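Good morning C.,

I know you're traveling, so I'll keep this short. The sequence:
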Amino acid sequence: MILFKGRGLTWPLAADLSEAQLQELLFHKAGPEAGVRRRSEPDWTAIHAELKRKHVTLQILWDEHTALNPEGYRYSRFCELYRAWEGKLSLSMRQTYLGGEKLFVDHAGDTVPVVVDRHTGEIRQAHIFVAVMGASSLTYAEATWSEGLADWIGAHERAFGFIGGAPKLVVPDNAKTAVIKACFYEPNVNRTYEEMLAHYNTAALPARPRKPRDKPKVEAAARIMERYLLGRLRKRVFYALAELNEAIAGVLTELNDERIIRRLGATRRALFIDLDQPHLSPLPAQDYVYAEWQVRRANLDYHVDIDGCFYSVPFRYA
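The tokens, ready to paste straight into the viewer:
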């Protein structure tokens, strides 16, 4: 072997070395590679899911982690790494949803055409109602002929039946069917809507006017439903509202029970059973009886006009 001397060191000539040996001599490791973590990495997905439970904090989860991994991260670094991981979930406003706390409701922006007369080809547009649980993102949707109060109330009742309970709060937008007068602080909720929610032991918390990021869950779910129904089913013709709702039910099964949320590693249904379902209020024994409230002035003949019909009232109201 021929040796080469230089800088006080004696090396074999490169001709006598393999590529790997030469790399080892010239670029030998001086310790752990930069950027390689020397401590066990927490399961951020599990931690994120646990934070949706009531009374659970990062301090509690860090205590549990260090009990199993004494050489793990200190609390400040633990929080810093979690916030960095959480920040990659979405670029929109970050919100924390507790299990069973909020149900977000809205109508999708686009409608779905339904052929109501096969002979004339008459088409009627169906509106898509969407409801999403905050913690698990479990999604419910159905088609209705309108966005009027009767269809709005009925869709809510069927949504509560779908999830098997009632959340503590329902978050609608400021549509007239939900909110009579929008306000940043004290919106005036439609009386029929308010009574229906009280029947299910819940209440409305309307989003602020012109603030769609107050309800990002339902905004995203509405986009998903539009893509499935208007995109994937664009070549299918629906001849009845029931037929459209049957197609929507198939989409919901795929979305809730089969499609895995990549960042959380679980389906919406699994997250719902674990996070939301234990905290829902039970459904009442009796169904809600739909009623509309209208303000009317009694005429001199102590009758009031409601939709073209006259009803008598006590004469003192004349």
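Safe travels,
E.
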